[in-house]
Amino acid sequence: MANLGLLSGTKSSKSLTKSAKSLNVNFRIPYYTHWGQSLLVCGSEPVLGSWNVKKGFLLSPVHQDNELIWCGSITVPSGFSCEYTYYVVDDEKNVLRWEMGKKRKLLLPETIKDGEVLLHDLWQTGGDALPFRSAFKNVIFRQSISLNIEKPEGLIRNKLDQEDSILVHFKICCPNVEEGSSVYVIGSTSNLGQWKIQNAFKLSYAGESIWEADCVMQRGDFPIKYKYCKYGKTGNISLETGPNRTLSIDFSNNQRRYIFLSDGMMREMPWRGAGVAIPMFSVRSEADLGVGEFLDLKLLVDWAVESGFHLVQLLPINDTSVHGMWWDSYPYSSLSVFALHPLYMRVQALSQSMPEDIKDVDYEATLATKLAIAKKLFNLEKDLILNSSAFQKFFSENEHWLKPYAAFCFLRDFFETSDHSQWGRFSHYSEDKLQKLISKDSLHYDVIRFHYYLQFHLHSQLSEAAEYARKKGVVLKGDLPIGVDRNSVDTWVYPNLFRMNTSTGAPPDYFDKNGQNWGFPTYNWEEMSKDNYAWWCARLTQMSKYFTAYRIDHILGFFRIWELPDHAMTGLLGKFRPSIPLSQEELEREGIWDFDRLTRPYIRQEDLQEKLGSSWTYIAANFLHEFQKGCYEFNEDCNTEKKIAAKLKSCAMKSMLLESEDKIRRDLFDLLKTVVLIRDREDPKKFYPRFNIEDTPSFKDLDDHSKNVLKRLYYDYYFHRQENLWRENAMKTLPALLNSSDMMACGEDLGLIPSCVHPVMQDLGLIGLRIQRMPSEPGLEFGIPSQYSYMTVCAPSCHDCSTLRAWWEEDEERRRRYFKNVVGSDALPPSQCVPEVTYFVLRQHVESPSMWAIFPLQDLLALKEDYTTRPATEETINDPTNPKHYWRYRVHVTLESLQKDKELKTTIKDLICGSGRSCPQAGQASAATTSEKQQVAGGRESNPVAKPLNAVPQKEAVAVV
Q1: pLDDT over 70 for what percent of the chain?
Q2: For 70-86, what is the HEC assignment?
Q3: How remote is the C-alpha of 392 from its chain's centroid?
């Protein structure tokens, strides 16, 4: 029993007197914990800790059949109400995990004077919270919004008039209820219809997808067996899946009982949908000026709906105008994490009275042309637009980022560089300097206002397209880049949030054996935590104005980031941040002491001769010096990758080189990386093992004892010692992101995956990514879509790798292995990715259990030979191994033409709906039925773009869900 004195002094918890009757509230929740863990209830009232988990109410475990039930009882007055949540804690009441979703509500009416209140709860998982994300709530299940609320959530109306009566309050979450349908309880008692739907117990809609009602039972009714079901006016019945639910009660005392059943989610076949992915710049329409535009999304949405897709996924759309050249095509290098890219503006929509002379454009200089047209229109209509109520509303809601962005753009153009360290007195941002820059009295005020004008129109155009998608039942999915350009508005305004002497990247992986260096500064998470990650929250809030879902780019970065020194150009010589380094004391205890030998490049004369050939003497004389007989080290002016690259560019050197500059640079970089340990730049007594330590000549020349010690410490550093640290880091940062908007969140979890990542994503309700050619399971060459978990997005390819066609055609031996092991055929596979191959691969994915199957548009177009005339390699969007890759892929067919291609749309929709995935149009059931009939009849021969692989027996051509 709780101390009753804790209840005093609260509005809803009135002081109890000897004459007042009280209620016992019993918590009950099944949950499996590990050794040393307990369950705790924390809530809004003092008896539950007033949201201080350290003062929360600990529950006790009880074994019941095969379940571990956590129970506990508190005493409260009549009329008690509170909110509460369950937590998993350790012995010190430190939070290890908490349930997701909304806070629970308990409302006890004054009419309940005494007795026992039993709360039968189920742990709310991250997946349970997904229906409340805007992708489902406002788009896919939007028909539920029109339901009328029949009673407030948690309200009890019935009274217990008889001593042996029990009030059971049923509560279930059912987000997908069609108009004209209601939710019922059907079960073993007469009150529940005795399993007859005509007599079932109807629940009332309480809002937010909650259905509930209270039913008076008798002791003789127990134990009760029951299920929830949906029942429509047309007679359609949808009974929940799984075994019957059971409610049993211990009648050892004679108290009145009020049972609150919070039964979680209605058990239905998991909702599964499909989507199409394409960068905004790759879209093509008859109205655009050489690049995809926000208003083109309306055409893309129309095509998606008619093809059976519930989602359209884009790459980042923020302004990347950092360099003023083609390097700015990199969509993950944001100039501003808030501003939209002017590239995607439709200039024809800026004005209803565009002069004829403005319409003659240069299509080869798209951005410059659009800005030139926009400036002419701005000069004509600036006062009309900027004085409008719509603009004033936009400005007031966005001025916190809009003003610094406009000032930055002005200074970038004035100084002809976005490197704000070159801006003299403006290098260091201050509010006073900003106000002077954007002052109405300044000579450049119209330049500042022009950027306001651009962002207003971009906002209006994207908002129009986003609203169109929502009304059509299509989720618009954005992309949250992990980094920002070091020469950006954000690093200028908030330099304290970034570690500007570092660079972000990824360790060696599927994409690049030397690792990747993205060039972004890493984050100062300690500083960001001081205001509860407000910068991140503002980013997500801004994104949610347009998107109902988003992809978290490189979600591993929220656990730990691969951090490189700012003088690095490649990605190998990095370390994880945060991480627990190897200390000098730890290494010395293991007999490792020659730190100078282990941390400097290990360069021997024979290595130079082997690597550099006849050029070795000249290169050694200019870049190295011999510090011991036959042992070399780099000179001070070229002891980093950036210094080497700069020295090689000198004209005097180039004329003397026998090899190409690129070849020499790679060779010198390789020599620079021949270290075993990397010394911490901030603490010289801390060290990090170099990635792939055993590949270095330095390691190979060590004695056996040192090799064994360093090998063991290497595996401990990369695969064991950081797991708890990384989990704690993610559980600080990711919830702040997720709670800052109601968008559905997906995480790009490719690469070297720590073991803590997937459990954290599961706890938080984050949807992972599965690419078949990059399986997360060890020992597999190709992922098995039929074995993917539900909380995933599956895809045959993505923007960071070659398309399905290019991948199929680039490696003959791999193609044969795929045909044998995945397709199940010993026949010789076709050398080209013919439509039958594409169809097989796509069918595998749509039939997978994954919540989402999202396909790059290029892979969908490969279903038809008409769209495969272009070389497959030209369809690749990004090459992750090239930091200066030109992002310029354009779909070679317009959206208008795709819209007219009924054959392709029919094939795709037949694939999606035939797999049981949801389609955003009425009549999908008949489409699925038609698909099934075609399969039974031998399948799809009438459609030339939708044939099964001839070499595969029919029973093997169908993936198992």
Answers
A1: 90
A2: EEEEEEEECCCEEEEEE
A3: 33
pLDDT at 360 over 50: no
Place of tokens 């892979």: 859
3-class secondary-structure state, position 843:
helix
In whole angstroms, give the CA distance from residue 906 to residue 927.
10
Judge contact between 101 and 123, C-beta under 8 A. Answer: no
pLDDT of res. 656: 61
Q: Among residues 668, 591, 564, 582, which one has the least CA distance to residue 624?
A: 668
Least reliable range by pLDDT among 243-257, 261-275, 381-395, 427-441: 243-257
Token pair 């005339």 is found at 869
User: Which residue carries 């390097």 as its tokens?
Assistant: 327
Cα–Cα distance measured from residue 914 to residue 297, given in angstroms and rounded to the nearest whole number: 26
Q: What is the pTM of this model?
A: 0.89
Residues found in the chain: 961
- Residue type for position 332: Y
Specify the DSSP class assigned to residue 421. Answer: G
CB burial of residue 376 (10 Å; 0-12, 13-18, 19+): middle
Q: What is the mean pLDDT of residues 144-152?
A: 68
Q: In what order do the strands lie in the sheet with 603-604?
A: 603-604, 631-634, 624-628
Q: What is the per-residue pLDDT across 194-232, written as a single tens digit (0 to 9) for each?
A: 999 999 999 999 988 899 999 999 988 999 999 999 998
Confidence class for position 952, pLDDT limits 50, 70, 90: very low
Count of alpha carbons within 13 angstroms of residue 27, beta-carbon side: 31
State the DSSP code for 135: I
User: How many angstroms separate the CA atoms of 489 and 929, rounded?
Assistant: 54
| Residue 12 burial (CB count, 10 A) | 15
Q: How far apart are CA 668 and CA 170, in angstroms?
A: 71
Q: Which three-class secondary structure state does DSSP give residue 277?
A: strand
C-alpha 892: how far from chain center: 29
φ, ψ for residue 664, nearest 5 deg: -65, -45
CA distance 704 to 415: 58
Please state, as a whole number, how many other Cβ atoms lie within 10 Å of the Cβ of residue 9.
10
Give 602-632 as a DSSP string.
-EEHHHHHHHHGGGHHHHHHHHEEEEETTEE
Residue 101 and residue 210: Cα distance in Å, rounded? 13
Tell whether the model's pLDDT for residue 89 goes beyond 80: yes
DSSP structural state of residue 340: B
Question: Nearest Cα to 665, choosing from 694, 638, 697, 627?
Answer: 638
pLDDT of residue 47: 96
Beta bridge partners of 496: none
pLDDT, one tens digit per residue, over 406-426 is 999 999 999 999 999 999 999
Tell me the longest C-alpha to C-alpha distance in the chain.
103
CB 297 within 8 A of CB 898: no
Torsion of CA 472, 867, 366, 877, to 10 degrees: 90
Residue 778, pLDDT above cutoff 80: yes
Mean pLDDT for the stretch of residues 266-284? 94
User: Residues 843, 915: contact at Cβ < 8 Å?
Assistant: yes
Euclidean distance between CA atoms 186 and 60, whole angstroms = 32
Given a contact cutoff of 8 angstroms between Cβ atoms, the answer to whether 745 and 767 are in contact is: yes
- Block residue for tokens 């919004």: 145
Query: 136 with 175: CB under 8 angstroms?
Result: yes
Q: Which two tokens stand for residue 511?
A: 């994409």
C-alpha to C-alpha distance for 440 and 446, rounded to whole angstroms: 9
Q: What percent of the chain is predicted at pLDDT more than 90?
A: 74
674 contacts 606 by C-beta, under 8 angstroms:
no
CA angle 500/503/504 to nearest 5° reads: 125
Measured CA to CA, the distance from residue 548 to residue 225 in angstroms comes to 39
454, two tokens: 């651009």
Segment 234-255, tens digit of pLDDT: 888 999 999 999 999 887 777 7
The reported pLDDT for the residue numbered 114 is 80
